[in-house]
Amino acid sequence: MALQLKASFAASGGCYGSRPLRKALRAKGMEIGVYKIRRLMRAHGLRSAWKRKFVHTTDSNHDLPIAENVLNRQFEPEAVNKAWVADITYIRTRSGWLYLAVVLDLFSRKIVGWSMAPNMPAELVCSAMQLAVAQRQPPPGLIAHSDRGSQYASASYRALLTRNNMQQSMSRKGNCWDNSVMERFFLSLKMERVWRRDYANHAEAIRDITEYIVGFYNNERLHSKLGYLPPTVYERQWRLNHLSRCPELVDHYTQTPDTKKGAMGALLLIQPPSNLWRGSLLPLGREATPKPGTEGIQIERIR
Predict the structure, then answer these.
(1) How far apart are CA 226 and CA 109, in angstroms?
(2) What are the residues whose beta carbons fall under 8 Å from the beta carbon of 27, sequence distance 6 or more?
(3) How many other CB atoms are found less than 10 A from the CB of residue 252?
């Protein structure tokens, strides 16, 4: 039991506490109580990632248009692609700050778009949103919520939302709770990965953060809000349940070119001369051997 406990703890990157570990062990067919897990963790010196104070920073000192708070803290939509939240955070490296823009689907807490750059132009948030749109193809009326930062109030970002028939929503001034789900993701990212690294440069940070999002957070990390399922598994179960109630939608979900061909992908990094990075989908040939959880993902620079 102790051996399996240590293996599950190591697989989580040292992030799981007693409750997620109990779920992980139960998935392997082992029943064990939370208190026994805590005793074993103490006995073997296993301590989950510790917390630092999270500082929220937003540049809302501008004269650009501000959208209404349409989302209004309705953080539990009934289906995928109903409401997304977006925000920017900063990553420290020895080569200077790296900024990360992220888009998250509130239904499954899955990261559906992201982009990184050494500065924070409007193009950074537009690139993350463009990836989310390309991957998810959301229906008209999706709520795209963010804070009041100048990037999200920019003409280019607002035009992007308009082209894709999205409703823009913004937090109230100085109220980080209106975007608390995204704040919680950033805390998890920093607590479980960033604060435990010393990135030498931007490229190293980009690789590691991308691996966290694609290889761990979306596909392996157990979320208590999702019944201790990873976002990708939660969405898959929801779709299967949805299809069982609506058989006429089977073709829509199952007859895509990638599904019929069994296309796979791999985590790659290409470096043309620019300084803006984002994730994107890339079906690859049969010769590729992807790392589990990284199917169809590429990292690219945006000119």
Answers:
(1) 8
(2) none
(3) 10
Percent of the chain with pLDDT over 70: 69
* Residue 273: per-residue pLDDT: 34
Tokens of 236: 């898959």
Nearest-angstrom CA–CA distance, 144 and 97: 26
DSSP string, 128-151: HHHHHHHHH-PPTT-EEEE-S-HH
User: Which tens digit of pLDDT belongs to each residue from 236-267?
Assistant: 999 988 777 766 555 554 444 443 333 333 33
Count of other CB atoms within 10 angstroms of residue 74: 13
Output b/e per residue, 11-22; b: 16+ Cβ within 10 A: ebbebbbbebbb
The Cα–Cα gap between 46 and 23 comes to 17
Q: How far apart (Å, rounded) are the C-alpha atoms in residues 84 and 121?
A: 20
Reading the block at residue 261, the tokens are 């061909």
Measured distance CA(79)–CA(81) in Å, rounded: 7
Q: What Å distances lie between residue 291 and 112, 219, 236, 255, CA to CA?
A: 19, 12, 20, 25
Neighbours of 64 (CB within 10 A): 15
Query: Which residues of the chain register pLDDT less than 70?
Result: 4-6, 8-9, 11-15, 21, 34, 44, 46, 48-62, 246-303
Which residue reads 């209106």 in tokens? 178
Rounded to the nearest 5°, which phi and psi values hold at 270? -120, 150
Count of all residues that appear for the chain in the document: 303
CA nearest neighbour of 192 among 207, 176, 219, 212: 212
Instruction: Find the DSSP H helices in 137-272.
Output: 150-153, 155-163, 180-192, 202-211, 231-245, 250-254, 257-261
Residues 7-27: pLDDT tens digits? Answer: 766 766 666 777 776 777 777
Q: Which residues contact 291 (CB under 8 A, 6 or more apart)?
A: 215, 266, 267
